[in-house]
């Protein structure tokens, strides 16, 4: 397959995503308001298509995919390092530093993979072979990515952004009340560490970690990995196959729905905010240039473990995704930088 053919496949897939995303953005405009705040909230929390997981993931195949959780963790760590550098170079205000780190470290590991992979698979010149087989395995890989990403975002990104939120609040307190700041500084490091852990366990919303889509992925993992359950539900002769076919039917509607909601979530980004243009350019450079370049080396490492080309493609995509919508939710919890977050999301 030539370079031009590859570029055409990539271009068509991205254009499809952008067009449907643009429609979603239009439907969220105030004068249309078909995807208002309530509708967006409900769709954001709805289940994603994980029906292919049970069909493609067995216990042995799950073991062979061990590199994916490592790969995703590396994207978070590398992104955090790049973000810290960007914060120092651009002298990002304290109240936005956590936002920048969140945007650089956490990619959209769920929705966008479910959108991009089927679009690539259905192209006649797709490098991944038969369209139906490609889509089935691609969606299974995307489901695994989504489930792992949800855990990392709330166990890692939330914690990091919370630390920076505390630092920002401490800086504001120093301006308003010097005595209170002095007391804060005098607290030992160990006490502060325990307090942060306590605050983390008290404030983290487990409903966010175990969203319906994540729970559905866990159930599908169990169905696929446990042989007796798999024989009951998966296959043309399975006695409970109606449940699997119903899940597949429901899942087919989620991909276009998620594409629309990604666009609708960008609605607030149309408004003016105080985020620096250099910060936006920096986040774009980190997520779409530096991280993919490093990702090439990581995917080459995965190749030595015998992974197929579609699996390598998914691993590579994990380094080249726009910031996770979850970052916007975390920002809302801390009530700081919401408009700036929307602007960054829109441009990326």
UniProtKB/TrEMBL annotation:
Keywords: Auxin signaling pathway, Endoplasmic reticulum, Membrane, Transmembrane, Transmembrane helix, Transport. The keyword Hydrolase does not apply. It is found in: Endoplasmic reticulum membrane. The keyword NADP does not apply. It is a multi-pass membrane protein. InterPro entries: Mem_transp_PIN-like, PILS1/3/4/5/7. The chain crosses the membrane at residues 7-29, 66-87, 99-120, 140-159, 204-226, 246-266, 278-298, 310-334. Involved in cellular auxin homeostasis by regulating auxin metabolism. Regulates intracellular auxin accumulation at the endoplasmic reticulum and thus auxin availability for nuclear auxin signaling. Belongs to the auxin efflux carrier (TC 2.A.69.2) family. This is Uncharacterized protein. It comes from Hevea brasiliensis. The lineage of its organism: Eukaryota, Viridiplantae, Streptophyta, Embryophyta, Tracheophyta.
């Amino acid at each position: 397959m030539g370079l031009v053919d590859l570029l055409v496949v990539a271009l068509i897939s991205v254009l499809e995503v952008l067009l449907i995303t643009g429609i979603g953005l239009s439907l969220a405009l105030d004068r249309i308001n078909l995807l208002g705040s309530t509708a967006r909230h409900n769709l954001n929390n709805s289940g994603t298509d994980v029906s292919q997981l049970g069909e493609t993931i067995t216990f042995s195949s799950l073991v062979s995919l061990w590199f994916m959780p490592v790969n995703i963790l590396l994207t978070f760590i590398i992104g955090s390092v790049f973000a810290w550098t960007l914060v120092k170079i651009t002298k990002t205000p304290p109240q936005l530093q956590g936002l920048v780190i969140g945007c650089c470290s956490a990619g959209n590991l769920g929705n966008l993979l479910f959108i991009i992979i089927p679009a690539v698979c259905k192209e006649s010149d797709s490098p991944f072979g038969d369209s139906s087989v490609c889509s089935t395995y691609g969606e299974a890989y995307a489901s695994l990515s989504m489930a792992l990403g949800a855990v990392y975002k709330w166990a890692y990104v939330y914690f990091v952004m919370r630390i920076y939120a505390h630092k920002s609040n401490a800086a504001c307190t120093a301006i308003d009340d010097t005595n209170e700041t002095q007391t804060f500084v005098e607290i030992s490091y160990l006490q502060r560490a325990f307090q942060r852990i306590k605050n983390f366990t008290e404030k983290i919303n487990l409903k966010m970690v175990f969203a319906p889509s994540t729970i559905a992925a866990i159930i599908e993992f169990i169905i696929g990995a446990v042989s007796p359950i798999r024989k009951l539900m998966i296959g043309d002769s399975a006695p409970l196959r109606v449940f699997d076919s119903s899940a597949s039917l429901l899942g087919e509607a989620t991909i276009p729905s998620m594409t629309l909601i990604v666009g609708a979530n960008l609605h607030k980004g149309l408004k003016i905010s105080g985020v620096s243009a250099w910060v936006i350019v920096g986040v774009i450079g980190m997520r779409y240039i530096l991280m993919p370049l490093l990702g090439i080396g990581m995917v080459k490492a995965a190749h030595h473990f015998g992974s197929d080309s579609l699996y390598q493609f998914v691993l590579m995509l994990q380094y080249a995704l726009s910031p996770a919508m979850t970052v916007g939710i975390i920002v809302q919890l801390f009530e700081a930088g919401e408009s700036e977050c929307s602007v960054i999301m829109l441009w990326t």
